[in-house]
Amino acid sequence: MPFISTKTNKPVSDDTAKKLKEAYASAIELLPGKTEKWLMLSFEGEVKMAFHGDMDAPMAFLVVSLVGKAPGEAYDALTKRLCEIMGDVLGIASDMVYVKYEEVDHWGWNGINF
Questions:
Q1: With contact defined as beta carbons under 8 Å apart, do 89 and 54 qualify?
Q2: List of E strands, 1-114
C-alpha cells in the first residue's frame, strides 16, 4: 500500500502526471513486495516553495508512505530513482529534491485495516 505525494513549483500537466505515474509504477518495485497494483499517487504543481533561500529554481518534495518497513538499501535505490525521475520528467536537479519516507503501522482500505 504505497503512496507517493509529489509537490513541485513546476507545472504538472495531465501529460506530465501520466509520465510520472508510469515512472513511479516501475520505481516502486525497488521496495520489496511493492507494486503498481496498490500504488496511489498525488501530484501538486505550481506550489509556492523555497529551498536554499531560492524561490525560483525548480524543486520538488516527495513523500513516500508505506505499510511496514523496507531495508535501507531499498530506500537508497528508490531515492536515487525518484531523483532521476524528477530530472527526466520535470528538469529538476537531484540536489533540489527532498524525499521523505513514512513507515505506517496502520493503514485502512475498503472498510478494513491492514
A1: no
A2: 3-8, 40-44, 60-67, 97-104, 108-109, 112-113
